[in-house]
Amino acid sequence: FDDNFEVVDITIDKLAKTKDDDGFEGDDINLINQWALDTWNKLVNDDQYHIKALNFSTYGATLMHIDEGGNTLTPLYNYLKPLDQALEQQFYGRYGEKVQFALETCSPSLGMLNSGLQIYWLKYQKPEVYKRIKHTLHFPQYLAYLFTKEATTEYTSIGCHTGIWNFRRRDYHQWIKDEGIINLIPDFSTSPVVAHWEGNGQQIPVGTGLHDSSSALRTYLHLFDEKFLLLGMTDTWCITLNPFDHSPLRPEDVSQDCLQYLTVQGRRVKASRFFIGNEHGYQFNRMAEHFGKPLDYYKTVSFDESLFNTAHNIQAGDARKLVPHSFDASGAHKANTNDSQEWNLASFSSFEDAYHQLIYDLISFFEPAIAIAARKGLPKYMIVDGEFTDDEIFLNTLSKLYPSVEVLVPNIPEGAATGAALLINQYLNPQMQKPELQFKKY
Q: Cα–chain-centroid distance for residue 29?
């Protein structure tokens, strides 16, 4: 970004997956390290840029473990990796019934998605590795460590359904103290700058890094003056964030995949999750094959009012209705996943017809998640960030299904990256002018 937070350079690469030491697929930390360092070296040595600061945002629920010599001890374990059932029973047998524990830590029981249980799993399943850990870092703070060798912790990562933070007491949960895991987690950073990268005769401030959804949220809290819901869309999840509801979770919230995050300042944010991105990817791949279209064809499809009306009028039980494939452990519809029956695309005359139905049904499935995040009433605005911001069918359908709400798409390409950049720049330059935020309205 330049000083006005206009994008001056953007690099997008898709890195190959690997398998961990148990054979489960996940991201390759060695490739990520190399990509980050190579990208940085290219930019910092480019005479057309004078880089003032570096920061990071990454997905959450992911840990890296560092030994005494500063080396990584483990692969980057995938948070979708199954948690051994006996070990999970051992954990809750020691530390309390699932619902009560969830109310304290403000997250449903999610297996390895509760990243604190990843450390617990490592302690009991791979004790020789666990014994060598000096620091356990959340993924954004690991990237900061890669550039500075300084270990730190911050609220947005700790507050991302980790299971290690007691929201009621505003402190680490007792279980990680009892297990001694607290000794592996670095102190909280006292500022958004963890240290400086040194090279080429320069000292460049490096930020602590932020959890991506929380970083995007900070962008809009900082730049937008009205109350809103944020739909943080990825190719896996849609997270609905309501930063204006700080009320404690109820048992019925937890049972419907409702949770709470923490802001940069450690304040509660009501949130609900749904596996919409994963389902979307699975189905549009099937549609592309069925109708003989390229994989990115859906991005070229225009909104068609008549096809929307057709989707709207389809009744339950009709063959055109979406049969979900992968809503596992997602919202109020987790039991509706059907592994044995595929959605019948033969019912549609065209890709466009099928895609309008897919989007209509995905949003309909997602409506309870929005309702629970906005339990005290829908605000006037709904901001869409991340995936789907260039999907006219999604945006128009969302607007039609929520006629009392203005659906807004911001003019910034990536709210999470912007939030991380804003945070460190605001710290270094407190007098900075807010960049102008513009929206396309639906």
A: 18
Element (H, E) at 238: strand 238-242
Domain ranges in the chain are 17-208, 216-442
- For the segment(s) 17-208, the CATH number from 3.30.420.40, 2.40.110.20, 3.40.50.1370, 3.40.50.150 is 3.30.420.40
Ordered DSSP codes for 293-352: --TTGGGGPPP-HHHHHHHHHPPTT-TTS---S--TT-GGGGGG--SS----GGG-SSHH
* DSSP H or E segment with residue 416: helix 415-428
| Identity of the amino acid at 125 | Q
| Side-by-side strand order, sheet with 381-386 | 258-262, 268-274, 238-242, 228-233, 381-386, 406-410, 439-441
What digits encode the pLDDT tens for the residues 264-303? 999 999 999 888 888 999 999 999 999 999 999 999 999 9
| pLDDT (tens digit per residue) in 372-383 | 999 989 999 999
- Report the half-sphere exposure of 300 (CA within 13 A, side-chain side): 7
Sign of the alpha-carbon torsion through 401, 402, 404, 405: negative
Check if the beta carbon of residue 73 is closer than 8 Å to that of residue 133. yes
| Topology of domain 216-442, CATH | Nucleotidyltransferase; domain 5 (3.30.420)
Q: Do 17-208 and 216-442 come out as alike in CATH topology?
A: yes
pTM above 0.70, yes or no: yes
